[in-house]
Write a structure and sequence with these properties.
Layout: E1 2-5, H1 7-24, H2 32-52, H3 69-77, E2 85-89, H4 96-103, H5 116-134
Antiparallel strand pairs: 1-2
Length: about 140
């Protein structure tokens, strides 16, 4: 399912997940590596949302498929892009030619990806971002 995303809810979930992950750490026994890993995925997630949110100054819908930050964000949250839909859109309502032009995708983009689930999440998110920008 595709549609317009609730970026506010996504941002709130990212912030909540950061707080939850840090709260669950035993600060006395936590390793710097663990804290750094949590902070890095948090920053990567915030960066993805900032770059793709249509309300930002210059949203970017083009991501190198090798960049797995989109997939890592949703994996970390334990969610899917469809969990953040506020306005579902049926496939017959999507102008596929305009979508492909705006996302600047080609069939060769996904060739280097070996993980189909990762590619599915990235494409679903980018299509939802496109639809959020168009509405």
């Amino acid at each position: 399912m595709f549609g317009k995303l609730d970026f506010h809810k996504l941002n709130l979930d990212i912030q909540s997940k950061l707080e939850s992950d840090f709260d669950s750490l035993d600060i006395n026994n936590a390793k710097d590596k663990e804290m750094l890993q949590i902070h890095e995925i948090y920053l990567a997630s915030k960066n993805v949302v900032e770059k793709t949110n249509p309300e930002s100054n210059n949203p970017q819908l083009r991501f190198n498929p090798i960049n797995s930050d989109i997939y890592l964000m949703f994996d970390w949250l334990g969610k899917k892009p469809s969990d953040y839909l506020i306005e579902p859109v049926s496939l017959n309502e999507i102008d596929l030619q305009d979508l492909l032009e705006n996302l600047n995708l080609s069939f060769s983009d996904g060739i280097e990806l070996t993980d189909v689930a990762e590619m599915d999440v990235q494409l679903e998110y980018l299509i939802d971002c496109y639809l959020s920008l168009k509405k």
